[in-house]
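User: What would this chain look like folded?
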Amino acid sequence: MNEDSLSSGFFGEDIPSDTLGFTDLKEIYVAASGYSQLHVCRRLGRLHILKSLQPEYASQEFYRQLLLKEFNISYPLEHPNIRHTLGMERHETLGTCIVMEYVDGIPLTDFLQPGKLSQPLAHKFIREICSALQYIHGKQLIHKDIKPANILITYNGNNVKIIDFGLADCDDYAMLKIPAGTKKYLAPEQLIPGASIDYRTDIYSFGVIIGEMATLLKDRRLSAIAHKCIQEDPANRYQSTADILTALEKKRTSPTLKYVAAGISLLALVILSVMFLRPRQLSAIQGNYSLPVYGNSTVGNTYQKILLKERKELHRKIARFTADRQKLSQDSVRITNKLTAILNDRFPEKSQRETAIYKQQLRSIRQDVAREIAAVRTQLR
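Assistant: Here's the prediction, encoded as structure tokens.
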């Protein structure tokens, strides 16, 4: 449904009358500084919300078009965390109305009180608001009035329902963009006439809400997320609600585990430092040649055995090396690769191979191989 097909409806031609009838009409909200009003009513046994213009605005074409704009923006939206817009009809006393889903719940404002909010609930609300905003922004829409009063929480399941698209913007309504929002939750750019507004405006407003949750829960992670959301420069904020979710779901190590991990790392560094600084001479080596090996938990006995075996093999091939010195270089590469493979088995991750410990042990391997090759070359002279 588009604007062209509905514009004449304000004069009673295209918008259907309430032939099925709304009963038990009851006023529940009148905007103090706005142009709309809300009524709850019944139709076929179900509760509905009717949004219409206040009587003093009902005859003004500008406000009629604003109501139509809200309908055309909200009607196509289908998301579990956004209140559904069901249609647009004319009521005999209220005039043209947007017919909306009745949400049995309370505003998020009620949860932002001491003792009302838990961390699991806060995380659930944030995840669902992120999901709804990601959907809205994907439709090239900006809500422009994200605040606790416009976020309902259902009694059944504590599920989020974002409401009120009366101030929302989209490209189709460039001529009907009006200053909007609640001051506490307004992004700085919303206060600058003619400033560019985009989805990061909603991220700012959302960040203020997250900050209120963080204060109630004394939650440092939520506080850090809120701080990034409410940066004055939009470029310094999260660039999408997906980024907020990533920050929220990032695994956090408990303080106790951090101290334990730090202690283990420190102990390992001390042990390895002692091992590297005090190389020991291996025994059980034939002849007068002694082989220093940097014995440690990484290379271990397997490394030592292979290195000794390769040393003996090199000396058995003296005659072959005399005839072809190139083969000695080939054996040097082969032995280095074999010993490096043992080290890599103990440091399988790329990040582990960037550590100082891995690089030090790799240098030790190259030194050991170079020492063996040098001993063979001495005999070849």
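The chain has a mean pLDDT of 82. If you want, I can go into more detail on any region.
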